[in-house]
Amino acid sequence: MATKRKKKRRIRKSLLVILLLIAVAGVAAYIHFRPQKESADNRFTCCSLTHDELMELVESEEIYDSYPMEDYLFYGETLNLFYKEYSLGRMDPVLAKTLIVRNLQSGKEYSFLVTDMIDSQIDLSSLEKGIYSVSLTEDNTYKRIYFEESFCDEIFLVRRNRIKMKVSVIADSSFLEDGDPLDRNYLYLIVEESDEGDAYYDIILDPAYGYDTGDYVEKGATINEITKSEETYAFAMMIRERLEEKGLSVLVTRKNNYTLTPTYGEGGRLEQAYQSKGRYMFVIEMSSSQTSTESGLLTIHSSFTSDRFARSVTDYLLSQSKLEASSQTTSSENGVLASGRNSSGYDSYFIIRESGGRILGAAQTNEKSLQNAAFAAEERQGIQTVVLSYCYLNNQEDAEKYLQNREDYAEKTAEAILRYLGMGY
């Protein structure tokens, strides 16, 4: 009898344990699968501000007048705003007005005088971390910029001191979510550190030649013991090594000296450049001319930009190396020229035009450029490109001078780029 009672007690205990396990599992399942209320911590925040602090900051802004914009585009690290839908070469009513970008936290203001050059508007790299309002001055009045259609966009800037900055461009009256909607889609810029851009590049180096045009293979001539395609690739790799030592991520558009890389179309150099999200591109070239007397460094930039970027790099090279300004340029040009324009008014230097996205009319001019339409024609983020040609190879003296100094030229080119980016030198 005692043995039977013990067995019954064991059975009861086992049933109790099983029931307890079932109950615990049920509670765990309810906790895991029950509808969750959105946590206040998941609401929109930025710049070390809580959502409530951000909402208070935005709602406390005093707006007395406003100014509508219809379009926006990037070039390099410059944000361009347009009153009308952008059209290359057309004068926009924003011209000659001043844009005021104000840090809502510190009150610090940045002003940008709008010219007809696409690198003259808001220099995003100059902005410190924070949230900014954007206004325009007209008739001595601040007019807050807004867009009729709402949007949110973002761009990643060049790493500086190994830190990648993201700029969110927001024109959305409801971007604060649970706050009262603003009366218009006012424009805000949010500048903050972000590891989202770690996979993106900063600088693009395009070693000229070594491509298949579709009509012929262009490897570049061999003149005075220099084969153009081989030399530009080797030179680009030297520059990349020095830039990467300083923390920049650098894309070289050619894999090696043996693989032909097309310029246009899917998988080509231009598509690589756009996908990289790099903000600046340097095309490495070696010139030749009809005579053997031409010599020196020649830098070419878009005819729709100022020469500020090209001038900064060129002046440093001329002052810090044995390079001399191209004999094709005047003393005032001093080695720097704007691209010519074709009969349709676009930059004639194709790599500058086709890397510029919508703001330079990429994928518009001929059948080859149309191969880029899928990724370039409507691209808002244009790459700021310059061409650097270091010598004239059919001038034997110039070619020999290059060979004797090319390591130093590569070193000084990297320094010139870093200097322009505010990273020393």
What do you see in this structure?
- The protein has 425 residues and is an alpha/beta fold.
- Helices cover 28% and strands 25% of the residues.
- It has nine helices and 22 strands.
- Strands 1, 4, 5, 7, 8, 9, 10 and 11 form an eight-stranded mixed beta sheet that branches.
- A hairpin with a 4-residue loop joins β13 and β14.
- α3 packs parallel to α9 and α5 crosses α9.
- The longest helix is centred in the N-terminal third of the chain and has 32 residues.
- It is globular and about 75 Å long.
- The protein starts with a helix and ends in a 5-residue tail after the last helix.
- The N terminus is likely disordered.
Give the class from helix and strand content and strand pairing: alpha/beta
**Count of DSSP helices?**
9
- Profile the largest sheet: 8 strands, mixed
Mean pLDDT: 89
β-strand amount: 25-35%
Counted beta strands: 22
The oligomerization state is single chain
Portion of residues within helices: 25-40%
Unreliable stretches covering 5 or more consecutive residues: 1-8, 29-39
Outline, from the CA principal axes?
globular
Computed over alpha carbons, the radius of gyration is: 29 Å
Question: First CA to last CA: what distance?
Answer: 97 Å
